[in-house]
Write a structure and sequence with these properties.
three-stranded antiparallel β-sheet; three-stranded parallel β-sheet; alpha/beta; 211 residues
Length: 211
């Protein structure tokens, strides 16, 4: 391929090209996914059954099979601009090493201080929790990426955040356990599940706690 026609190593969007809507893929599916079932009754869950776990707006979107696009609130769009657009990278060197005819691309999320794409969803969940008047949220995390993302999102909107981490992550995989002082946006407490919080949350002179 000539240099003139060669696909760039990195492709960027301008900020004004960032999406303004979330896309609900179910609206375009001919065969809709099976509904969420109540584990007790095995019947499709109604909105009021999800209310103890999710915000009202999130429930509305979760159960919606017909609305194709949801506008992204301006506050969330502004937050996204701190680390997006992220480049789409063509992995030419990897293609060469593999001797493959495949064209390999990946998204680089190095500007995302939470360390993963999960912040894209976490900030929306924190936004709707704040809008509904909630004071804080509780969540679970596996290796820690989701807990970290939601902690950062909650800090941005001034919400308290309590994270329960699967106990096997820090015990079986020591590298998953934080070794440094947590950043200012860390969750107020991280607890091992299913152990009681007191067994893992150590006292700290700072306004947050860390296992």
């Amino acid at each position: 391929m000539s240099d003139k026609n060669k696909i760039p190593y990195k492709i960027y969007l301008a900020e004004n090209e960032m999406p303004k809507y979330w896309y609900n893929v179910r609206a375009d599916m001919k065969n809709k996914p099976a509904p969420l079932l109540n584990p007790g009754t095995l019947k499709p869950m109604a909105a009021e059954e999800l209310a103890p776990v999710f915000c009202d707006e999130l429930i509305k979107q979760e159960l919606d099979n017909d609305t194709r696009e949801y506008p992204i609130p301006q506050e969330i769009q502004d937050f996204y601009k701190m680390y997006r657009p992220s480049p789409l990278v063509r992995a030419y060197c990897l293609e060469e090493k593999l001797q493959t005819p495949a064209k390999i691309y990946y998204k680089f999320e190095g500007n995302n201080t939470s360390g993963s794409h999960k912040l894209n969803s976490a900030i929306a969940q924190a936004y709707y929790a704040k809008k509904q008047g909630l004071k804080g949220v509780t969540t679970e995390t596996g290796a820690g990426q989701w807990g970290t993302a939601l902690s950062m999102a909650c800090s941005y909107f001034g919400l308290d955040c309590k994270v329960y981490m699967v106990k096997v992550s820090p015990t079986a995989r020591p590298w998953c356990r934080p070794r440094r002082t947590p950043p200012p946006w860390a969750a107020r407490s991280w607890s091992s599940s299913p152990a009681p919080p007191a067994a893992w949350v150590a006292p700290s002179p700072r306004p947050w706690k860390w296992p």
